[in-house]
Structures are given as structure tokens and as C-alpha cells.
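hey so i finally got around to running the thing on that chain from the lab meeting. sorry it took forever, my laptop kept dying and i had to restart like 3 times. anyway pasting the input first so we r on the same page abt which one it is
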Amino acid sequence: MVRTRKGLTERHQKILDYINKRVREQGYPPSIREIGKATGISSTSVVTYYLKQLSELGLIERDARYSRALRLPNSAPAQDLIRIPILGPIAAGLPILVPDAGPTYVGDELDAVDIARSVIPAREKEDDLYALRVQGDSMIDAMINDGDIVIMKRAAKANNGEMVAIWLPHRDETTLKYFFKEEDHYRLQPANPTMQPIIVSKDEPLEIKGKVVMVIRKVEQAGVK
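ok and heres what got predicted. didnt touch it at all, straight out
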């Protein structure tokens, strides 16, 4: 394959040019599948391979676990990105124990995700946003899978049908579900036809901790031979 400059092939350059174009036009980077489609690469693992090389060359910055968690250090001004702390896991399945309050760390680094401000609805305030890692598959029909990250906005109330993070104080557990307030109970509805809703009596405390703003999907990694 023809080398366009030191360390880069034509395919590297096509990928880099497409990422630049998407960020310039839309304010946020494309997904792995979108990059593959635009550059004629049918395998997501091959796209991931090239992105890894571009990252090693310092031409992009990325978190390889998530499909849109990348940026261009020379073309994406820092002020256009916001860093959202990841506060811990949230169950898309059976409720899980509430994690310790506050952001988590990986070594000495804040566990967080950088997102272009332009992809967050303008009405949302940066200080009201936080992120949670999804565990389980109860929300798969809502396109939320195990390992994804959900960006949340802090909220204490919700309308029927909204997807929320809920704390059940008596159980010391949290869960991510569609919320419904019904005659004598709350129904926490999964988006998975194989699972039953969680029914919470109105005599039992229930606290809404946030509403889902957007989802960052995890990319399954595969080796490239």
C-alpha cells in the first residue's frame, strides 16, 4: 500500500481525513462502523486496528472501549470538549448495590469520558451531567448494551416512560429502567421482552437520580491478523 507520509498509508490518511470532515461538519467524531463504510473497510476490527495506529502516532486521541470516544488533538479545541466523570456502574438488569459517591479513578487518572459539547442538547448544563457504566442487558431494545456508557442529567422527577437511574434506599440498590407511576405502585420497565418489570410499592421509598441524555456504545475488540 502506498505511503503518504512517514508511518501513514493511503488508508490511514482516508480515515484521518474522514474523521476531520465529520468533526468539522457535525462537531463530533464518527463511529467505527461509519468510518468503515466511508472508507471502504468492511471489518470493524480492521478500522480499530488503523485507529490504534493513528493513536500511537499521536494523530488522534481515543478511548478504544467506546465507538465515538476519540478526538483530533490538532483540530478539536479543548474548549469544545467537556469531561464528564463516570460515577460507577448502573444495572440494566437486576438492581445492583449503590457505588460509592463521587467520581472513580483508574490509577491516578479520573475515570471520565470526553464529549464534544455540540452533541449535548443546548439546554443541558455541564455541571448537571455525569456518566454511568451499564451492567446487564435489560435495556437492549433501547439500544443500550452491557458495557455501554450512559450520560445522565441530574433529576429528581420524571414523567411516565422516561429512562431514568433509580435508587431504592431500603434495598440500597440502583437500576436503569423506564419509569412508570401507576395507581398503587411504581413500575420499572426493562426494554427486553424476556424480562419482567420491577414493581415497587408506593410504601417503599424510591428516588430518581437522573435521566438519560445520550449513550456511548462500547466497541467489541477483535484481533487483526
